[in-house]
Amino acid sequence: MYVGELLRSLDRVPSGVPGLDDMIGGGFLPGRVYLVTGPPGSGKTTIGLQFLVEGAKNGEKGTFISLVENPKIIIQNMLRYNFGLLGYINSGMITFHDLGSYLLRTEYRMSWTELFNAILKVINEGEVKRVVIDSFTSLEHLVKDPENKRWALGRFIRALQELEITTIITAEMLQGDSYTDEHYLADGVIVIHHFMRNYQMIRALQVLKMRGVPHDNNLKRIRFTEDGIRVYQEAPF
User: Fold this and answer.
1) Model confidence over 144-175: pLDDT tens digits?
2) Nearest C-alpha neighbor of 154 from the set 127, 176, 182, 122
3) Does the CA dihedral 71-76-80-86 come out positive or negative?
4) Which is the most buried residue in 18, 105, 134, 186, by most CB within 10 A?
5) Contact 197, 162 (CB under 8 A)
6) How many CB atoms neighbour CB 181 within 10 A?
C-alpha cells in the first residue's frame, strides 16, 4: 500500500450521531467494522439508521441488512424521527434487505459461512459505502454450525475491510462482563447502558474500544430527541 493510500485510510466517516464524533476524534475510520451493543430498547437500531442517513446526506449509498426483524416494522418505528428516512429510501440512497425471512425458516439452517456469504452478496450488489447489520443476537441458535462462528466472523470482517465499506453491527448486551466474538474482532465497540436513579431511566454511551483512534471511554449521557439519539459531553450522574 502506498503512503497516500495509508493517509486516505485515516480520513474520518461522520457517525451521524451528534456528540459521538467528539468522543472518537472526529468520526469512524473508513472501511472498518464497529459493534454497537446494549440492552433491548437502548437505541442500537436508531444509531445504525442515523449512520446511514448521514451517509446519504453526503452522497454515500447505504444498506440496512435485517437478520431477524421485519424491515417494514423497523422503518415504521423510525418514522418518529425527523431525519427524513423515507426520502432516502425512495431515492435509493438507503436500501433495506430482509435476510431474517430465510434465517427463521425451520426447514433449513445456514452455516456461518453461508450466512456471511449471503450478506456479502447483498453488499456487493448494492455498491454501497455504509452498511448496518442488525442484529447478531442469538444467531448461534439459527445456524447449523455455531461452533465455527469466530473463524467465519474473522473472514467476514476481513472481507468487509477489503471492500472498504464502513460497517455497524448491532447486538444485544446479554451480560455486562460477558464478551462475544464480535467484541474481540470488531475494530471498535460502542456500548449503551441503562441505569435507574430515583425511579428514572438514565441512558449513557461508552466507547469501550476504538482501534487506531484516541477516544474518550468515559460514560456520557444520551437522550432520544426528535432527530434521533444525541450524546452529551457530560457524565450520566
Assistant:
1) 898 999 999 999 999 999 999 999 999 987 66
2) 182
3) positive
4) 186
5) no
6) 16
* Band of residue 228 on the pLDDT scale cut at 50, 70, 90: very high
Alpha helices, DSSP H only, in the chain?
Answer: 3-8, 20-23, 44-57, 71-78, 85-90, 100-103, 112-126, 149-162, 181-185
Contact 221, 236 (CB under 8 A): yes
Query: Is the pTM above the cut of 0.85?
Result: yes
Distances from the Cα of 164 to the Cα of 30, 60, 172, 226, angstroms: 7, 13, 26, 32
Q: For 70-87, what is the mean pLDDT? A: 95
CA separation for the pair 203, 188 (Å, rounded): 20
Write the CB contacts of 108 (distance below 8 Å, at least 6 apart in sequence): 102
Nine-digit cell string for 49: 439508521
What Å distances lie between residue 66 and 52, 114, 179, CA to CA? 14, 16, 22
> Do the beta carbons of residue 151 and residue 185 sit within 8 Å?
no
In this structure, what is the dihedral angle of CA atoms 223, 227, 233, 237, given to the nearest 10 degrees? -10
Asked if residue 41 has pLDDT above 70, the reply is: yes
SS3 readout for 66-101: ECCCCHHHHHHHHCCCCCCHHHHHHCCCEEEEECHH
What does the pLDDT look like over 216-227, one tens digit per residue? Answer: 999 999 999 999
